[in-house]
Amino acid sequence: MSLLTLLLLFCFLSLSAFALDMQFVDQDVIVNGVVSDSWSPSSHSHLVDEFERTSYFWLEPSEGETIGELQLYVTSGKDVSSPELLTGPLWDFYDYYEYYEYYEQSFGTELEVVYHCQRQGVVTMTLSIPLTTEGSGSKRLDVSWEKSCGSGVRFGLQVGTVELGNDVIEDGETRPEWSSGESVPAAVTLSTFYLSMEEGFGTQTYTPPQVTSSNPHVIVHSRGYASIANSISEEDHAHALTIVYECVGTGRGIITVRIDIPPYSPLTWSWEKVCSQTV
Question: Who contacts 201 (Cβ-Cβ below 8 Å, separation ≥6)?
């Protein structure tokens, strides 16, 4: 066997010794230490849509493999998004083979990428994975993909006066009757609204609601799950926002709610509240 043949065989065995796997949902990103074509830096053809705020990956090294410090960096669109990489602990888990009646132990860790979109556009990013294997040296695997960031109205996001309703805001747009057309009589002491996300539209973060009154005699307070900064997804129950009225005089006031949902246009709706006596 020639020296060249021996060198080629050594290189093949060294490369084949890496067995790292990586998954994204139901897709293989890395299989046996090889990056899939659609996730390679030369292709980066996988596109995460504008409705996905966070992506989760599962990284599974084989026995004897050590993962170094992971680095996530933006290769284009730095003003579009500032992605953040969060890593979990290394987990032990077991695959149970029912028919063979034994457990196989494996190790893995979850990676979370939070995109932090700043404006509309597409950002391309690369995750660099240093990998060392006992007896086979080390190498670096680069995984790349794109993320679309949206703007304008937030499709799929609803606000209603009943759970899962959209009679106030539908697909991020306020209905005409809730641009100060509705009126709440004096006998009513609170109003509750429900935020929800339609199926297929991912997750959306939102800031604490800004609730204002045009009349100093009509004081408002916000309560409920949606009264603080939060995020809502299609899998969540509706988030309730209750507006409590405090009448300190007589008159009418226009109540306005604004909820910022960056990078999309804020949710806003208004109505009239009547106060007939001092409380």
Answer: 51, 155, 156, 157, 234
